[in-house]
Amino acid sequence: MPSPRLVLLQRSVANHVPSAVAGALVYVAYRIVRKMVEDVPNTVDPLLLPPLKYDRETLRRQSAAMGVDPQR
Question: For 16-57, what is each residue's pLDDT tens digit?
């Protein structure tokens, strides 16, 4: 019969192996995405969204950010 210390060590290692594998997979995915981002040429412009129109919602948000009531 194996010693109790050996059984505890085996269980401890068995519990940490899936975490180590998951961490390695996440790291590999991170490195792949980082390489893909670095490979994008500098001539590519970022996606520029059209400017917001000054409608009621935008005016409310701006006024709330300044802490005043909107005036029209």
Answer: 888 899 999 999 999 999 999 888 877 777 777 666 666 667
Number of CB atoms found within 10 A of residue 58's CB: 13
Contact 70, 63 (CB under 8 A): yes
Whether residue 70 contacts residue 60, with contact meaning beta carbons closer than 8 Å, is answered with yes
Question: What are the CA-CA distances from residue 27 to residues 2, 37, 66 (Å)?
Answer: 36, 15, 43
| DSSP annotation string for 19-45 | HHHHHHHHHHHHHHHHHHHHTS-TTPP
Question: Cα–Cα–Cα angle for 35, 37, 40, nearest 5°?
Answer: 110
Side chain identity at residue 1, one-letter code: M
Interior angle at CA 22, CA 16 and CA 23, nearest 5? 90
